[in-house]
Structures are given as structure tokens and as C-alpha cells.
Task: structure prediction
Amino acid sequence: MRHEATVISGTEMAKQIQKEIQQGVESWIALGNRRPHLSIILVGDNPASHTYVRNKIKAASAVGICSELILKPENVSQEELLDITDQLNMDPRVSGILVQLPLPDHVDERTICNGIAPEKDVDGFHIINIGRLCLDQRSLIPATASAVWEIIKRAGIETFGRNVVVAGRSKNVGMPIAMLLHTDGEHERPGGECPAGRPLM
Result:
């Protein structure tokens, strides 16, 4: 039996999600909690990476999340980056840490991602978060995979018991999407629940 394809526009959906998150952040703060704070580490002069980071800072600001950019030169050592993540891990002001990828060839991305405390790993790239995702346990989920699942859910598309094709098998996008579809998205997100029902880290 042939089914007609459904084209999903995420523009209006994104506006609604942004509004919900903004309300959730303000409700969270009204309860006496600290405003969420995102620390972003950016290495080198890659134009695409700088564009991505600008967009992330803009998106964070739009929903009331504080952010800071830590910019390091292309020749930064792996040890210095690990020192930075260690400091951010211990900083109570910092709610989440993001290292913009890719990193220079002399820096091992997996080592740096694993240097972030799992509970502050907003990209969900730490080996513990990846393992928990695969085992259907409490975890932080990579943003693209989480966004894809949110779109599917809000669009009312039923995936349970269906055959689904995921184009791509990257460890940061394709694999997490496949795992969410495999478990029908029933993953427990860490963090407090704000009154609007949006999880905050």
C-alpha cells in the first residue's frame, strides 16, 4: 500500500517551541533557580563554526539563557582545552558546556568531549550519554536527534511498529535518531522540570 509523503515545515513549530522554552526558563527563575548559563568553546577561525556559534548564542539569548564564548587559537593544546573543561565542570554558574566541532587535527575530539561532565554535556556527545541513550537510560540527547524527534512528535506522525529509514549513520546525528526511533522516543531527560513542562538542565 502506497502512502503519500508528508512535507513538514518546521518554521512555525520552531516559533512555538522557542516561546515554550522562554516561558519555561522564566518560570524556572521565578522559583528561585539560577538562570541557565551556557559556555561555548570555539577553536580556530573556521567560518562555518563561527556562524554556528553565533546562531547558538542568538538562540540562547532569545529564550533567556546566558551564554559566554571562550575563543582559542588554532594551535591551542589538547591539555589547555581539557583544563578549560575542568574549570567549567567545577563552576557552579555553568549549566551547560558545548565544544564546537570540528577541532584541529592535533586535538582528539573524543577526548575533549569526554572531558565535559556528562550532566553539563549539552551536545550529548560524552561516551556516558551516548551509552545511556543506547541502553534507553536517563541521558542528554544530541540536539539534532532531539529536534527531529520533537518534530515527528508534534506533527503527529506515528512511528511505533513502523519501518523507518534514517539517511546517514553519523555518531552525532544518524545513530541517535535511530536509537530514539527504536525506543519510540521514550527517554528520560535529566534536569529539573519547570512549570511549563520543559526540562531544564
Q: What stands out?
A: The chain has one domain: 10-200.
